[in-house]
Amino acid sequence: MSSLLSRYRLLLRDELPVILRPLTPDDRERITDAFRRLSPESMYFRFWTRVQGANPKFIERLCADDDGQHRTWVIVIENNDEIPGVGGGSYWRSDGSEDSAEVSFTVADEFQGQGVGTILLAVLWVEALESGIRQFVAYVLDENHVMLTWWASLGAAHERQPHGGWELTLRLDESLLPDTSAAGSLRRTMAGLRAASKAA
Ligand SMILES: CC(C)(COP(=O)(O)OP(=O)(O)OC[C@H]1O[C@@H](n2cnc3c(N)ncnc32)[C@H](O)[C@@H]1OP(=O)(O)O)[C@@H](O)C(=O)NCCC(=O)NCCS
To answer: Boundaries of each N-acetyltransferase domain copy (predicted)?
Structure first.
């Protein structure tokens, strides 16, 4: 049983109020629309392809009921039909490994740099840890400087992939986080989520 709430009200760095909650099967249209609006560059960084719009089979997998193997959290603006989503992050338990999961994030272009990725990583970290996962792995293109810089400043290990790009590995152990601005933001966000859950 997760200690997390099913919904959090949060403020982004520019004070915009948002809702953080798990993705549900009812979000299919919202997610399809959100991926359709993503810039070619963000799409490429997320899916390693320049094809616009996410594959419908991928959306189905994403929205499928939680079977303990994957989880997706989204950040949305309440009562706003114009912006389908601010961002989303998922983890999928790695094949053949009980304590490792692949993680991925997509933040809408106009909301990047507002701490959305940090909130998503924080909630996935807290939840994954409670499910026995001890490390997140992310696959990142050479050109994705934001992701490479962000995870380097969280102390992630990086390993070159034979066909290009990097495998980044982040241990889910707060005591290993370095003394950087990104790690401080992550720590504070996790503490905030835990405190809000306790207070509820
Ligand atoms: C990578 C991505 C998820 C980051 O999300 P974000 O909401 O922009 O990230 P945040 O605002 O939480 O910033 C996290 C950290 O990244 C670094 N960062 C963010 N934007 C940056 C920029 N433009 N330049 C350099 N570093 C940056 C900072 O260290 C920051 O932490 P800090 O501000 O607390 O020091 C987002 O840019 C994105 O969706 N990109 C397109 C898809 C993608 O690349 N997905 C990842 C593949 S798995």
So the answer is: 18-179
